[in-house]
Amino acid sequence: MAKMNANFLNLKENYLFKEISKQVNAYIAANPNNKIIKMGIGDVTLPLAPVVVEAMKKAAEEMGSKATFRGYEDSGQGYDFLRDAVKGYYRKRGVALNNEEIFISDGAKSDSGNINDIFDSSDIVLVTDPAYPVYVDSNTMDGKEIIYADSTPENGFAAMPPKSHADLIYLCSPNNPTGSVYTKEQLKEWVKYAKKNEAVIIFDAAYEAFITDPDLPRSIFEIEGARECAIEICSLSKTAGFTGTRCGYTVIPEELSFTAPSGEKYSVRKIWARRQGSKFNGVSYPVQRAAEAVFSDEGIKQCREIISYYLDNAAVMIKTFEKLGISFTGGTNSPYIWFRCPDNMDSWEFFHKLLNEAEIVGTPGSGFGRNGEGWFRMTAFGSRENTVEAMERFEKMMKA
Q1: CA distance linking residue 398 with residue 323, whole number of Å
Q2: How far apart are CA 378 and CA 331, in angstroms?
Q3: Segment (H or E) for 168
Q4: Which of 1, 41, 178, 354 has the lowest tally of Cβ within 10 angstroms?
């Protein structure tokens, strides 16, 4: 008789965003003529940049010709043209990579969840709380022990290393859901902790393109010593609006290694390459050509214009929260606003108030962990019109 992986029984019954969708759909069914403004899920609303669309069209046409058709890629890590583009993007920030250290993926969520495959189930996993649910869920599925570092208002929702030991460390900066960003000095402390504990940092840089402050690091590899203890995962979902197109990349430095009980060293990069070779068939050629265009000079220019649009939305939201005297983080160097629920409401209580009284959808902070209770997340990924209207509704509700 086949047996289930009993670790799945330790998961919450519903994934956070599935539960939100269920409740919102029920409200819409009961109020079909009302306008609901969604500011919960972090999906983008602006179309792909023109240079990206043209690259994808051209690549699709190539797939229709025998002379230029592409089947399986040779490396399994992504085409060299895209890895060259990613390498050049990092070079502009003073980070040197080689192609073998870059793995093209279908997005940061997949690699964030799958990377734990190559680590032992006895490893202790450290997650900052609140956190993106995939870090906890994927390691729960694997039966790993999970411990937490508290991100709270007192530390600016930027948890620092604990005294206890961990083998794997998940960090996200700019942070989802809180919008906080680690400084270089703070990341130096995490690298120091990782090296002392012989741990590996899984650094989620999915929102790095939203950082406008030149003093804030956009890659863990801007920190000395990180190549010996860190893996970086990034996505084009928010950088270039690839939420429906699906493309990202993971960087595993040559210096990063496992130490076997025998004392022998094994390359983490090579082990991950072996895993991907068995379980992943790569990203489609047209999508990789589209991704390559993102990193061109014109692509960077067009994508930054889109990011600026969302940051301007965030500025509209910040103005409202400041006017109402609501405590929040994010919105600057981040597309998320993380704020305290009014009147000591819990997160789901405020979710229902916001939906029923203002017809705005947000995300209850408790869905991101214990320290998220009493807090709430809104995104700046809507249209300008909807963002302005939502803030007018929000202010009216709060003053009622």
Answers
A1: 11
A2: 10
A3: strand 168-172
A4: 1
